[in-house]
Amino acid sequence: MSIDLRSDTVTRPTPAMRRAMAEAEVGDDIYGEDPTVNRLEERAAEILGKEAGLFVPTGTMGNVIAIKIHTEHGQEVVCESRAHILDWELSMTAWFAGCLVRPVYVEDGILTWTKLRDALRFPSPHCAPTGLIEIENTHNMAGGTVYPMDVLQEICENAHGHGIPVHMDGARIFNAACHLNRPVRELAAPADTVMFCLSKGLGAPVGSMLVGPAKAIERGRLYRKRLGGAMRQVGVLAAAGLIALEEMPHRLGEDHANARFLAGELAKLSGLKLHPERVQTNIVVFDVSATGLNSTEFIARLKPHGVLMSEASTPREVRAVTHFDVSRGDCAQAAEAVAELLANAGGSACATQLRS
């Protein structure tokens, strides 16, 4: 069986989740009559400190609903240049919300108010105004980096001072909370709306949550219907989501420790460029260009060694993501497989052996 480091989306439901799904009390969610969905939405809002929650099939749907809630057609959405909403969501900001994305590049993916300020546009005869600021916490393609609380608060306070709402793509916000050792509601508090995934590090088989003000979430429920995300007896999925929400956040530190271990082992190999000390959560991004391979070639050659990884934001970068289906031993084995790949690709000069 392969060691799958492509994403934390590949996790399989735990035995507790499977039992909860089999025994879930259900009703018709479109009528608001599924008690398990209702409980999940209430708990998600409570845990993140918001008024209301909305269960959606995917994080992409949750993000585009939030963008639509906050904006009008013809406005701009400012985000980091490698943001998930820009690169990985099929231009839904334009297609569904009718907005243009204005990207701002920051090396570590963590925007600051100083960086954002110059990208803002206000009503004029020539410029489309900024309707929303979007921040990604943790930042996926920057390697799972986390917003410091003072930076997050400064962005939101200044944005609100200009009448601009802030949406947080918090797909991995529980990882961010674990890294900062703070309650997740503190990270969510400055933002107007937050989307987070149940189906990544928290391990549920399906689903994400959008939380925010009750009136905004009420509008979001209609947008979910338009996007085909309204479901019927969906408590069978919400039941797993409740287990994920209540039981899984406490173990994310193990994934972070495994990611740091993997990064340290990979850093011993010549031909790979990465900084293990910068790994904050469960994502390791490394540059393979010095091996003479691009990311696609590297990943293809690694697969026969029994290890799966994914492409990052450039053709020279590879991403590995730890999760609860990957052990410390699996990470050690994955690093050994990379060493073998490099030795075969470029001879002994291209790779150093891992210390035993």
Provide structural commentary.
By secondary structure, this protein is α/β, with parallel strands linked by helices. It has two domains: 11-247, Type I PLP-dependent aspartate aminotransferase-like (Major domain) (Aspartate Aminotransferase, domain 2, 3-Layer(aba) Sandwich), CATH 3.40.640.10; 251-346, Alpha-Beta Complex (Aspartate Aminotransferase, domain 1). Helices cover 40% and strands 15% of the residues. The protein has 14 helices and twelve strands. It has helices at 15-23, 35-48, 59-70, 84-87, 92-95, 113-117, 149-161, 173-180, 184-188, 214-226, 235-247, 252-267, 295-302, 328-346; strands spanning 3-4, 52-56, 76-80, 100-104, 130-136, 166-169, 193-197, 208-212, 283-287, 307-308, 310-311, 317-321. A seven-stranded mixed β-sheet has the order 2-8-7-6-5-3-4, sandwiched between helices. Strands 9-12-11 form a three-stranded antiparallel β-sheet, with helices on one face. Strands 1-10 form a two-stranded parallel ribbon. Helix 7 (149-161) links the parallel strand 5 (130-136) and strand 6. The longest helix has 19 residues, at 328-346. 51% of the residues are buried. The model is unreliable at 347-356 (pLDDT under 50).
